[in-house]
Amino acid sequence: MWLVLLLLAAYCLGSIPTSIIAGKALRGIDIREYGSRNPGATNTFRVLGWKIGVAVGIVDIFKGFAAVALLPLLLPSDSWASMEARRMLAGFAAVAGHMWTVFAGFRGGKGVGTAFGVFLGLAPLPSTIAAAVWAALTFGTGYVSLGSIAAAVALPLLVITLGVWRGNLSPAVASVSVIVGLLVIIRHRSNISRLIRGEENRFGKRGKG
């Protein structure tokens, strides 16, 4: 019972449509009708400016972190799952909530920020290195999508490699990192097509309404 409640709480937390709320509250617009029409931090940055975009990104990261670091502690323990399993499942539910938010017709963002927050709580070092990969490629090439895809590939590799090297590999964390990485890449399939065609927008370039 408590495990089901935890998953629902984590899903609803991840589902909070930060960019949509910010667009309507601060500019009176629906972010899904502008730019790339994706309700994520990158499109918010392009359409609403860097201040709001950064704020949205921070909140999205916090959603993921809170799902694994706080929610499992707030609810009573459940005999069906260990604390590690509760954190894994809550993290996955939060990412799924962001990608398929119940508050916006199950059409959400691409999950990069929320996934980073989840693994910041589960695997701090691998997630920090993956964030550095994201930053290097994003600011080096100007393509946020390329940085996000590279980070999605790097994260599970880092989780597994560092876990084996340090002798504390968690099969649960490794499995979730692979699944989440694949979901992030799949969510970027349209970006991959545009990158191949040379039509992807660069970082900082405002999208067309």
Explain how this protein is built:
There is one protein chain. The protein is mostly helical. The chain contains 11 helices and no strands. Helix 1 (2-15) packs antiparallel against helix 4 and helix 1 packs parallel to helix 6. The mean pLDDT is 93.
Q: State the order of secondary-structure elements, H for helix, E for strand.
A: HHHHHHHHHHH
List segments where confidence is low: pLDDT < 50 over at least 5 consecutive residues.
none
Q: Whole-Å distance between the termini?
A: 45 Å
Mean pLDDT: 93
Percentage of residues in strands: under 5%
Radius of gyration: 17 Å
- Percent in helix: over 70%
Assembly state here?
single chain
Shape summary? globular
The biggest sheet, with number of strands, parallel, antiparallel or mixed sense and barrel status, is: none
Q: Helical segment tally?
A: 11
Tell me the structural class: mainly alpha
Report the strand count: 0
Structurally, the number of domains stands at: 1
Compile the SSE list and pairings.
Layout: H1 2-15, H2 18-27, H3 41-48, H4 50-69, H5 71-74, H6 83-99, H7 112-122, H8 124-141, H9 144-166, H10 171-187, H11 189-197
Helix pairs in contact: 1-4, 1-6, 3-4, 4-6, 4-7, 6-7, 6-10, 7-8, 7-10, 8-9, 9-10
